[in-house]
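pasting for the record
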Amino acid sequence: MTQPSDIQTATPHHYHPRIQRVCDYVQQHLNDEISLDTLSDLAAFSKYHFHRVFSAQVGVSISQYVLLCRLKRASFRLAFEHQKRIIDIAFEAGFERPEAFSKAFKRTFGQSPSEFRERPQWPQWHARFEFDVPTYGQQQMQVTIVNFLTTKVAKLEHLGPPENVLATAGRFIAWRKTTGLSPVKTSNTYGIPYSDPNTTPPEQFRWDVCGSIDQDVPANEFGVVTGMIPGGRCARIRHLGSHDSLDDSIYYVYRQWLPQSGENLRDFPCFFHYVNLIHEVDECDLITDVYVPLL
């Protein structure tokens, strides 16, 4: 009697950690040649079935997923690192010719690299990444209680759909570069969401991007003003990896840690300290500290 294949006996839930291993590997090897044999071995599937399993679980083919990951990194380079030449960004994305990069980029996002650099259409860009990457078992959840010091910040308010948050971040970065205030290398960068984007009407979603400063912000054309993040006790959890999965860490604090801790919440929203930034490192290397204010 022949043995049934793993596709016949395994449930979709059993596939999640296997597909996650593949996605993690891709994110960590964007600069390398990525072979089908390596990926199918990581997923513990025959290479004859791996393509179909990956597409069924994630919603795009493995080749599309690799391309999208590379183009996503290229997008951040284009939008936030104007000093980088497009030809160098193309080479980093694995294209031997800039023409091929431009064609793939425009086919994917509806804008050429130069058009995207000048005026990125972030909602359209976000729509290309609406696939389902499992995050099961991605990281250990460890919460610590710390005393956050009152911090004066320069802040720029975003009000509107979460898909446009990166446009606001781009304006804040432009303010930093133009004025020389709150420089990235010597200042901390924070984000303050005033509600849950999953449950808030898009037009009512508010998020502030902030940078620590030593002096008040002078009047400027960008709309950046002086603000304050109040000090006090906070629960802190370190999130590793993509900001797309920040909800995993945030909900862990509110759903699991908080009810068991006996702690009470302070009247200030949770906030993020972006230890490094999306245009500085690959997504898999992002470090974000999530703070939940406590009494």
